[in-house]
Amino acid sequence: MTYTYRTQGTCSQAIEIEIDDNGLIGDVTFYGGCNGNLKGIARLVKGLKPADVAARLEGVRCGMKTTSCPDQLARALKSIAQ
Asked: Which of 1, 13, 34, 35 qualifies as a FRET site for 69, CA 20 to 30 Å off?
């Protein structure tokens, strides 16, 4: 199943997340933001459990911002689990 999460407070505007039939993260696509870094994050989280990724990325900040693209991914994954 594919989910789209609208980000807040980051350069990226949205994150599209695919969860496979086993409940693992498939493809992740960030729209906007730092292209290379976000492609790297997407590759690193592929095949992992959403809860594990959310726990690792939650609270990551970008500069003086209170959030970041990784933090927004964590929030997106947590919202899917609810």
From this structure: 1
Whether the predicted pLDDT of 82 surpasses 90? no
Which are the contacts of 72, defined by CB distance < 8 A and separation ≥ 6?
5, 7, 8, 9, 10, 12, 15
18: its two tokens: 């695919």
| Pair 68, 10: CB distance under 8 Å | yes
Q: Would you state the pLDDT for residue 6? A: 98
Tell me the C-alpha distance between 62 and 49, whole Å.
24
Rounded Cα–Cα distance for residues 54 and 24 (Å)? 12
Chain position carrying tokens 């807040």: 8
